[in-house]
Write a structure and sequence with these properties.
Blueprint lengths: L1 E2 L18 H5 L13 E11 L2 H18 L3 H11 L15 H12 L2 E14 L4 E6 L8 E5 L4 E4 L2 E9 L11 E10 L2 E10 L4 E12 L2 E12 L3
Length: 235
């Protein structure tokens, strides 16, 4: 069985010198989405966590208890996620509603699992103008439907709202599931929801990666979802 894993506002003064401003160039995403992918459709590997059935059941039960406990403590939970999101390291806290041992079991189970490609999806990239890149996806990709990366404002526009630049992602041995990769991430905090869009490039091979994380409360339910997509960035 498979277990699907899964601040700032800048006023820009433009130099009208032809194509892109210096700010847009500095915020370029061409390393991750090179020019030859514009107006092209690529196959994306939808990566999911693989666990044995017994471990999956235990992880699922612990996760359900955490969701039931956190639904009444959303203000604290969102603050906690925001504080730890950049490092993607979420240390134990009694407010989770489970024991430290149970929480560490979940972390260890994930750490010992591996990401595998269980199905494919389609991504299409389109250059909207000199500083905006549109990304469309097929139905099999759940968390990314349509986004616009604006390199002038350094934001990512989604159906939920506009994500602001949150920082760089540095390649690290701690990225055990995916393997080391570097890139950028943008975050949207809206009501009881935190949405993080990450874009980068694998250190080994010629693949780019898109990672989307959604945590918080949505339509009355606690959600904690993540989707990782890998696609070839060479022609």
């Amino acid at each position: 069985m498979k277990y699907k894993k899964i601040v700032y506002i800048l006023l820009v003064s433009l130099f009208i010198v032809g194509c892109q401003s210096e700010m847009s160039k500095a915020n370029s995403v061409e390393e991750y989405i090179p020019p030859h992918l514009m107006n092209a459709e690529v196959t994306a590997d939808i990566m999911t966590l693989e666990m044995d059935p017994d471990t999956l059941k235990k992880v699922g039960n612990t996760g359900q208890r955490m969701r039931e406990h956190l639904v009444n403590n959303m203000e604290w939970y969102l603050k906690y996620v925001e504080e730890h999101a950049e490092k993607k390291s979420f240390p134990y806290h009694p407010n989770f509603g489970v024991t430290k041992e149970e929480y560490e079991f979940v972390l260890n189970a994930i750490d010992q699992s591996k990401l595998i490609n269980t199905k494919d999806g389609k991504l299409k990239f389109k250059k909207k103008n000199n500083h905006e890149v549109e990304i469309f996806s097929s139905e099999s990709i759940k968390l990314l439907k349509y986004v616009v990366i604006d390199t002038e404002k350094n934001t990512v526009k989604t159906s939920l709202g506009e994500c602001e630049y949150f920082g760089e992602i540095l390649a690290s041995p701690e990225q055990k599931l995916t393997g080391p990769w570097h890139g950028k991430q943008w975050m949207l905090k809206k009501d009881d929801l935190i949405y993080i869009f990450s874009l980068g490039k694998m250190e080994v091979g010629n693949k780019s990666i898109i990672d989307i994380s959604v945590k918080g409360k949505y339509k009355g339910e606690i959600i904690n979802k993540e989707e990782a997509l890998e696609f070839s960035s060479v022609s």
